[in-house]
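Sanity check record (used in CI):
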Amino acid sequence: MPTTLNIPAILAAVRHAGNLFLPDFRHSPIPQDMATFTQQLADIESRCLTALQERLAQDFPATPWLSADFPDEAAGEQPAHPEYWLCDAMDGAIQYVQHLPGWTINLVLMRAGQPYFAAIYDPFGQELFWAEAGGGAFVNEMPLHPSTKQDAALTLAVFEHSHGLADDPSLLARVGGSVTDLLRAFGVVRNYGPHGLQLAYVGAGRLDVFYQEGRDVENWLPGLLIAREAGADVGTADGQPWHWSADSLLVTAPGLGATFRQARPTPIR
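Expected output for Myo-inositol-1-monophosphatase:
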């Protein structure tokens, strides 16, 4: 039976976990070798996950925590667990160790194979984006709404890519083609870093288009729910409804996805 949501407790737990990292931000040396870099990322993940689990144990004693690396029991729309937490504890941890803003705490509660509640907290900006399926999306207590732009020259689009592109020439070509398509179609194109925060920004109207070729579900789910509940259009690059096995994601202000698909050439596959 699904656990009754104690939304204030969830939001407080996410805030607490994120705020733990503020005192040390920009006070540790930027790592200059792979061993130090890897160890810092592992320490961040462990510290953040522990803080979240300790705060949420009382309200969710029987809800399992599954890795954002998607073990078999989590990798699909028909998981073994009817409800579970999926946590990519710090999205944008690279920004954190590089002394850059844009790192967030990401948490999503999955039910029946779909995101049901999501929170993305930006400690540096003191902004907590969150959404419940069917209940709208918010930043702190303010409702979110996507932009209403239709003029492509005014549109701010972002692109993302997964790791390991050098090992997949086909995907590398698709990613390169996607950036070219965005530059051709929209006025400004950027990459901001954390997947979830960029998707939440589409829901907030700060960004107008998010586009990624390839499959990156674990990074998408929290922001995808927030953007969708805010009213953004969520689909694939070819205009199909997004699903777990989709190998692209296009999230836009209402109507801009269709405009983009009409303007772009045949995708590289």
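The CA atoms of residues 136 and 229 lie 5 Å apart. If this sentence no longer matches the regenerated tokens, the check is flagged for review.
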